[in-house]
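Sequence in, structure out. Go.
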Amino acid sequence: MTNLNRRAALALAAASATALTTATPAAAQSSSPAQRIQLAYRAATQAAGGTWQAFTTLNSQSVITENPTTLTEAYSVNKIAVATAVLDKVDRGLLQLSQRVDVTADIVIPTGDGILPLDGAYPSSITIGHALALLLTVSDDTAVRLAGLVCPAKELNEILVAKGFPNTQVVPVANPNRFYLGKTTPQETHDLLTQLAAGTLLSATSTAYLLKILRSQAAFTDGIRRLMSSDERARVATKAGWFNDGRNEAGIIFDSADKPALVYALFCQGAGDPTNFGGTHPAVLARVALGRVLLDAVPATTTVKAAPYRPTNGG
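Output:
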C-alpha cells in the first residue's frame, strides 16, 4: 500500500467501491441499503487492517456498530465539539462571530495543519468566525488555540457535559486557554452530529453556520467525499482527524429533501503506514470505498437544495 502512486490508489478505491455493490448484481438488488453498507464496511476495514470503532445510522436505524462506546482519541474530529462550545457562547450572547482574536507569533503552531502557520505576518488578527472556518475546513491547529482564547478548556468541557457529552472532552494543560483535542466515543460523536442536524444542539443561526462550513467544498474531501461530484459533496457534512497511527472521520449525509439521513463516525488506529497522512493511507482508502456506498444508500434526485459549487474566475 505504501508504494501505491496516486493514480493507482484512486483506481483501487474506485474499484473497491464498485465491486462492493456490483460484483454480485442479484445479491445487490435483493439486499437492503443497510446490508450493502454492512458488507462494504466489513470488506473495506478488513482490507485496511487496524482496529476500528464505528457507529453509523441510516434513517435513525443502526447499520454499523463496532465498539461504539469505546473511548478513543478523537484527534481533529473533536474540532466539531470545540466549535460547538464556542458557538454555544455565541448563542448566549457572550461572544460574537465578528469579534477579533489576536494571532501572535507565540500562538502559531509552526508545524501544524492549516493556513495560519503559512502567512508569516504576525501579529495580526482575525474574527472568531474566520478562526472557526479555518478550524473546520483546513483543520487549522492554530485555530484551536484561538478558540481557547475565547473558550478556555475547563469551560469548554463543562459546556459539552451540559449538552450530554461527558466523554467528548478536551485535555487541559497548564495554560488554561490551551488544550489537547482529547477523546470521544463513536456513539457520542454520532449523537452530537445527530443533534446538530436536528437543530437541537445550537440555535438555528449557529446550526446553519456550522453545517455550511462542514458541507463546503473547502471541507475535507480526501475520505468519504473523494469519489463524489461537487454537488454530491455538498450533501455531505464531514470532519476528519489524523495523528500518529490514527485516521478518523465523522459526518452527516443529507437526502434530496436536504434532510439528514445518514450519520457516521469512523475511527481507526494501527492500519499501518503511520507516517503517510495522504490519500493513499489504507484507512483513508477504506473510507473512500465506503463513502460511495453510504451516499448511494441515501435517496437523491438531480435537485440538491444545498448551494451547488460553481467556481468563479476572479473579477
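Check: Residues 111 and 304 are 38 Å apart (CA to CA). The first strand starts at residue 51 and ends at 58.
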